[in-house]
Amino acid sequence: MEYLLFRGFTKSFQVFSAERKRDRAKGFDVEQIVSQLLVAVQTYQIETVLETWKFLTARFFNHLDASYASTLHQLETSLLRLYVVNAVKSGHREKAAEFFQLHADKLNASVAAARGSSDSWSRWFILPYIEHPESDSYFQVFFGQPWLEAFVTSFRNFLSLVFRSLPLPKLLAFQLARLEEPTLKLRLKVSQSEATRLRLYNTEATTKIKKLEEAGRQLHSILRVMVQHSFMEHFSAPTPNYVDLTLGVYTRGWCYGIVEC
After folding, report:
1. Looking at the DSSP assignment, which residues form a beta bridge with residue 249?
2. Of 84 and 247, more confident
3. Residue 198: left (phi > 0), alpha (psi -120 to 50), or beta?
4. pTM for the whole thing?
């Protein structure tokens, strides 16, 4: 936008600003989208709710993997049920009845597709005519605050996941790549310096290991020589003289008192 003003494209700037204000995606701001839908529910603007969901489906949800189909169906069903519950709870039962009258065909198709499922609408057509639905064993959970909070949290988390998965426009991706280039170069230099340091450390460690191995070999040689020398001294020592006690014979160098020494 600053570029448009810098170049003097004031009309383009005005058109662009107006388009941004009408942006249903709210600049991919999850909180704004959720808030917009909740306000539409609370003010009984069912067409705004449906149009916003239709836009999100065409712009984002249709590009998701098929594995998300069940989650999307549950979220859409919960959003519409929230509209009906809010209308009944706030005393505008006619809004709930009008919703069922205008969208009966779509809901009947949903009933046929989800028969026996917890997402079925078959019981909901009588909700506007139940005196105290908040006490009904089936509907009471939908009138509680925990259900509302669980839906809002699930919807917010799902939108966040969808927006995080969006591919960046090529121009924006190119600009981000240019901005990240200096950081990547710095990280490369740091990595190269670390690699050089590790190579030097490895060289020094290898040298020390070789010195220790050489010292070990020298010590082993010294010990071997000492052991050999000790054995040679032991076996070359003179044998001591002794006395044959049986015959009482005197042997040179020893005297046991058998004869006079």
Report:
1. 244
2. 84
3. alpha
4. 0.57
